[in-house]
User: Fold this.
Amino acid sequence: MKITLKEIAKQLNVSPTTVSKALQDYPDIGAETKKKIKKYAKQVGYTPSIQAAYLRTQKTRIVGVIVPNLIDHFYNGLIEGVIEKASKNGYLVVILQSVDSQKKEKKMVDRLLHQQVDGIFISLARDTINYDHLNKIIESKTSLTLFDNTTKSINCNKISFDERNESFVATEHLIKCGCKKIMFFRDSLVSQKSIDQFIGYRKALDQYNIPFEKKYVHITENKMDDDAYEFIKALYNSKSEIEGIFIPNHTISLGVIKFFNEQKTVFLDKVKIVSFSSLNVQQWGHSNLKLIKLNGKKMGGKIIKSFLNEQNLLKMKLPLTFSTELLKSKKT
Assistant:
């Protein structure tokens, strides 16, 4: 026979409401009471009814994550971090990919809202410039967290890396290594992440009195490794005088890795590289490389922590306060 909240409440001489709140970690239930109820519920094998829980709380205990792609090691780590922390707190995670398309991103949002998820976490597509679908999430009273590629136009919790500072440090490293002709792979003209990276790159050039030259900025059309591979190949064949390369994107860096691993030349040994990546230096096979490691799993955990804090504020009927958290990378 299935154990119910009422039966647990009767055995422990408390109300069903107290049992329900204790199992959901409501802050108005004492720590000892929570501990006693959870222990007993585990002993008797209590499993909550999803349908009953939704009718009672209007919560599905489901959250959705939308990432630009599922081939990037960074996003794989991030998803792992989200699932690990969400599972520990009783949430099911739905993973979707926008393939870096605003059109598909909007469809993914509609699917998640139709499923009445409690929270939606999004890294915006590189071409997203209209935010009606984000406002739709907020209007539906669904928790929204933007991560990695965000926007200043929406008021919600945001978690990203300090792209301006990271890009400044990356470019500065190349300059201090003696590079003045530095190729910068720009991801997009419209995404906030790409804009901040470009600002950091320009700031470093300006601070060290190095003239900016448009020819040293390559805008990737499709953010794929094949595009980067062909560009680097053409750059090599043109006997370019490039001294340094800054790649603030892991997927793009894969194409560069492929070409460098195929070509063992003096030219390549002279070119210094800085890349944002979740790979290890050993996987590159290039002698003049500095990696800026991005910890996706850490960001995933931060996303769930931010979401849970928001849920607690809602439980206590306190006004919501939103924040932007900038994470630091790890240099190797």
Q: What stands out?
A: The two ends are 57 Å apart (CA to CA).
